Amino acid sequence: MDILGLPDQLDGTVEFAQNLICGDQEEEEEAPISKRSADVDSMVVGSFIETVKRIYGELKSKTSEFVCSAKIHELLDILGLPDQLDGAVELAQKWICGDVAP
Length: 102
Hints:
Layout: H1 11-22, H2 38-60, H3 64-69, H4 72-79, H5 86-97
Helix pairs in contact: 2-5, 4-5
């Protein structure tokens, strides 16, 4: 998180992206983590933004009253998303609701 300069709320999203790029390291021998190139970082950030936009589009089809009163895990369940995308759902919720979301 510190290397990428991202807030702690995106820890699940970073883990999700890391698993997409590196595979699930728990099943393999532990390998040293090296710094990723700027191209890979750009790809991950771009993919994250596209994911947030897709989630935003799905949430916009719901009433703002519902979206703004729902907890993140409720929205994850409704959208059928893994817990690792909690930061993306939270960001999309803030785009819709501002800082009034729970």
